Amino acid sequence: QKHFAEADKIEDQNAEQRRKLVMEGRAGSMENFVNEERGVVIANSAGIITSANKVVARMFGYKQQDMVGRNVSILMPSPYDQQHSTFIRNYLNTGRTNILARERAVEAKHSRGHTFLISINVNVIGAGEDVNFAAVMSPVDEAQVRASVTINLHGVVQTCNKKMLKMFGYTAEEMVGKNVSVLMNTDDAMR
């Protein structure tokens, strides 16, 4: 419960800051204020989620309590989910990284299996053995997202986003692990 309270406190502080800026006329419209909810996940140096706010739980289709204690890689599509522990270990050993303290757009994995684009900024909290990572994120506007599918060298679908699933009428479970030829006209697949 302590971890939920920490994540919710960060969420409430951010919301209060945005509300003040809107009321003072120093931020965009109230519509932008409402659309700027941010998800917050805090993970320890082993990549285990120690807290997650309500926004991120809703964004990824989990309950908060189901996220805590699991590896943060549950929020990532392949191959990043398998590489993430190595990324953390390399950072802890060298102190060097290309991803911390920069906002960037990345693919994320919903609990139902489809991918979606998020804007994320990861920062380090603490030092030494007490290091934690705080990720603040929000979904990218669906209107800006294109249909996408990721395949491996053998043509097997690794990830696909919601827009692609809608376009072809499949669920993530029906696509991931299948050959990309299922998306092609039979004549095209034979070429």
Task: Give the strand content.
Answer: 15-25%
Total helices: the number is: 8
Tertiary shape: globular
Radius of gyration: 19 Å
**Average pLDDT:** 80
> Which sequence of SSEs, written as H and E, runs from N to C?
HHEEHHHEEEEEHHH
Which regions have little confidence, pLDDT < 50, spanning 5+ residues?
A: 21-35
Q: Main sheet: which strands, in order across?
A: 2-1-5-4-3
Q: What's this, in brief?
A:
The chain has 191 residues and is an alpha+beta fold.
Topology:
Layout: H1 2-23, H2 30-35, E1 39-44, E2 49-52, H3 54-60, H4 64-67, H5 80-94, E3 104-109, E4 115-125, E5 132-139, E6 149-151, E7 157-160, H6 162-168, H7 172-175, H8 186-190
Antiparallel strand pairs: 1-2, 1-5, 3-4, 4-5, 6-7
Can you walk through the features of this model?
It is built from 8 helices and 7 strands, in the order H-H-E-E-H-H-H-E-E-E-E-E-H-H-H. It has 191 residues and is α+β, with helices and mostly antiparallel strands. It has a 5-stranded antiparallel beta sheet with strand order 2-1-5-4-3. The chain is globular. Residues 21-35 have low confidence and may be disordered.
Features of this protein?
alpha+beta; two-stranded antiparallel ribbon; 7 strands
